[in-house]
Design a protein that fits this description.
With 475 residues, the protein is of the alpha/beta class. It has 20 helices and 15 strands. It has helices at residues 15-19, 40-45, 51-58, 70-81, 113-131, 144-153, 172-179, 195-207, 209-214, 225-242, 261-271, 287-294, 318-325, 330-343, 350-359, 368-382, 388-400, 420-425, 434-440, 455-474; strands at residues 3-5, 30-32, 92-94, 100-103, 135-140, 159-166, 186-191, 217-219, 251-256, 276-282, 296-298, 345-347, 360-365, 408-412, 447-449. The strands form four sheets. It has a six-stranded mixed sheet, sandwiched between helices. Strand 5, helix 6 (144-153) and strand 6 form a beta-alpha-beta unit.
Length: 475
Amino acid sequence: MKYKRTRGEVSNLSFQEALFSGFLSDGGILLPEIIPNVSTERLRSWRKLSYPDLAKRIIPLFVDETEIPPEDLNKLLDAAFSKFSRSEVAPIVSLNSGLNIMELFHGKTWSFKDLALSCIGQFLQYFLSQQNKHVTILVGTTGDTGSAAIEAVRGLSSVDMVVMYPDGRVSQVQEKQMTSVLDENVHVFNVEGNGDEIDVFIKPCFLDTAFAEKHNLCSINSINWARIMVQTVHYFYAYLALCNEECSDEVEVIIPTGACGNVTSGIVAKKMGLPVRLVCAVNANDIVHRMLSSGVFSVAQSLPTIAPAMDVQMPYNMERIWYLVSNGDTDLVSTLMCQFEQSHSLPLPPTLLDQVRQAISKSCVVPDDDIRQCLLDVWKRDSYLLCPHSATGVYFHNHHSFLPPEKCVVLATASVMKFEKTVVEAGVEFPLFEEVSSLMKLESRCLKMVKGEDWEQMLRKRIERITENIQTRNN
């Protein structure tokens, strides 16, 4: 398997090269040159597999065995999933209505980001240990990516991690999970801005090719292909748990959506032949819903909500989605992205819009008040606690779904343990979680990026200092 750029020109990249990349010099991002096909017969043979064993069937389709031999890859995946608190890794529970909830939050930092990032941490260490190489990873986060990324690489001598999160736009638990990690290779910045503003000053560091190569920069946001790759597994797992014995019927997967990394994984799975109907549930930051409804992809002001990981008004994975649904039309993607980056508003060509609507069947916007009401209703009816992001998916099912509940699954992307304030505001008594109490007692450390300062320059200086320290250590 080789990888290519969404905007053309660069191709024939290895998995290792894709893993260690960020934004490419023209702003493009990476996808496989060919999406592998999974036949119905093959699907049927996978029906009884555990989550880790299913991952061992799917991930090798994207990783050439000359890069990671099968035995080594299986060991890396076993090590990654051994960190989860449930042996099923991603258990599926049914509410009284019959609606299924796929709990993707049983990793170390209680969010679905642990699924992919625990694997990526293993992949990074595997390649870096072979080459005696060091990388600096840059991560902008609006919630869960930061803590999951930190957990995946903390303490590694071959990796430094720089994480930036928006001040006041993550929950106390999310913030504490980042700032309480005191390992020397972890550098956390609190930024007086929003998530989109953080992406704005990270991206030039990658686009400056000389700077990026000098400091061995890497990203493990959902810009990183390996994130998308690993996340395809939970679509197959959910489908196989809910489909008929022939694997011939359709299952609806409802996805709380922000930067569109998760739904991109779903589209990849669909392109592989998985019979899923994909739905995007968004909060007040509704660029995806507006695009699907009006045909115009346009940036609006980022609004703080009680589902902060979804507070995104510039979902960079949309570029991947256009590439996938247009069957790899790099000229089209390059033209559209150039137009969008200049104007921040883009009417989609009718053919492309139809293709996107075929890939994403439906969407809906769920305001904060409806999220709170959904949390309360599910607690009263099912004695089940949802996080605010997952509640957007349940809200969609309750108001818009066409399929019966037993053929629908909501991807529960984070544990309720992170969102005490929101749960209490919804009128639900928040239980005492010992894990949270222990976390909140830990010492914290972070640096500040204050509005008015040159954030890009501050980031570059931190990267340069990391490189200097590594060079001193190696001399």
